[in-house]
Amino acid sequence: METLRVSxxxxxxxxSKFDKTQSxxxxxxxxxxxxxxxxxxxxxxxxxxxxxxxxADTENPYAPQxxxxxxxxxxxxxxxxxxxxxxxxxxxxxxxxxxxxxxxVVVWWDKNESAWKVFEDACPHRLAPLSEGRIDQWxxxxxxxxxxxxNGSGDCKFIPQAPKDGPPIHTSKRACVGAYPSTVQNxxxxxxxxxxxxxxxxxxxxxxxxIAEIDDPSYASLMGNREIPYGYEVLIENLMDPAHVPYAHxxxxxxxxxKEKADREGGRPMDLYIRKLDIxxxxxxxxxxxxxxxxxxxxCVSIFSPxxxxxxxxxxxxxxxKLSNEKVSSLQTGQxxxxxxxxxxxxxxxxxxxxxxxxxxxxxxxxxxxxxxIFHVGQNLIxxxxxxxxxxxxxxxxxxxxxxxQKACFVPTKSDALVVGFRKWLNKYAGGQVDWRGKFTxxxxxxxxxxxxxxxxxxxVLNCSSCNAAHKALGVLEVVLQVVSxxxxxxxxxxxxxxxxxxxxxxxxxxxxxxxFAGSKWLAHFIYKNFHxxxxxxxxx
Length: 541
Fold this sequence. Notes:
Layout: H1 20-25, E1 82-86, E2 96-100, E3 103-110, E4 115-120, E5 134-135, E6 141-142, E7 149-150, E8 156-158, E9 179-180, E10 182-185, E11 188-191, H2 212-215, E12 223-228, H3 232-239, H4 245-248, E13 273-278, E14 281-285, E15 290-294, E16 298-302, H5 317-332, E17 339-348, E18 351-357, H6 364-369, H7 372-385, H8 387-400, H9 405-408, H10 417-429, H11 450-453, H12 456-459, H13 465-494, H14 503-531
Antiparallel strand pairs: 1-11, 2-3, 3-4, 4-9, 5-6, 6-7, 7-8, 10-11, 12-18, 13-14, 14-15, 15-16, 16-17, 17-18
Helix pairs in contact: 3-10, 13-14
């Protein structure tokens, strides 16, 4: 799944052949470092990745080539911005329930401030979920249990049960709902996981990671999201593992094939390695290109060009303009650029959320004419094809103990370098696992039946504006085809023989009725397979 791409139309193809000029710049499985790239992230930690300070290491397949660590380095899970959802998949008319780090929040559109707001998903009155509420005619978030209303700052503005001539109890601090700092960046709603007033202006000091290509109009960058029934750690390490693609996604994804295949699937040795690992994540040599893990959520792969070093903490207007100028220059030279961007959100033990987008500056017209839901059909099939494997794998890792991962798992080849690097970062800087702050016992939820585990409708379709609209439209079309088929058969049966004396006319009506009925049945199967449940039997592929 590291190379999760559009498997329908279009597919981001990794070229299997390069010209002589390109081959000189390529190592066996990655690009050599180059000083120019349009890829840039901006995050709150300062990172200093200098290629000149990195020594070569070909003996250890997964050890980072340069590593810094002090006793004071400790990753704080609650001192970072987290994405909630792509804006394109949020309906401004209704509040949305989301969970991150075990925190239940409600995301809603405040039309008075023209901004997305993120609140604690609990009314201070009797703790009813505000996500089940509504946005009233004045643009306030209303709890539907007793009608309490809140403005965009979380202040209670109306308590229906309070006497008009009584004390203004709605002004009490206890009547307010906790409001989290939030912002929109790169087409996603982000929030800071603390409603403490001291973080009210945190956006002025620290900003979410920024990827310029997502906002660049010269790039195509359709987004998708899905709720995943396995944990954050397993999700990230699976995306960092290109070696599983020919096997777990056989028949679904096109992969680079070796000249001499050792088996049907075409697995091969991979010379992956990490350039530097520290509290800010790592940069690695990928196949092909480079990859970057920016904790806690962002993992990016640059296919055609190396990733720039990160040398800033907060985004600034001049810096943004500079990056835009660099991109224009690269486009003028006709240089192809493509990124695979995966944003992995810890939801709760055994559950995570994946947001993905694949910006590219070529074939942009395809995304403008092909509906987004068609891309999602293929991408969800890729996710489904190894979902059950990873769900069970996570339980076996938990049985062994998360801190015993490297003892339980045998990872002797360089193809596992990024996975081992992530586990090393997790153990060394982040406490070995997500910090849930005592919200959970650590036990994973039980394994449901496979149809429920791979249920696309609840995990994706309901949360995707494009797929939800397509599901409804196709459902209507299915009913229309059935109605037309029965009406045509009824016409043939009801009309007198003399009126429809022509055998050709009667045959045509009956044939049309049968075609409509068959079409409705095929459509019902298509809807179920692509919007509800699509099993994947690896033994029969």
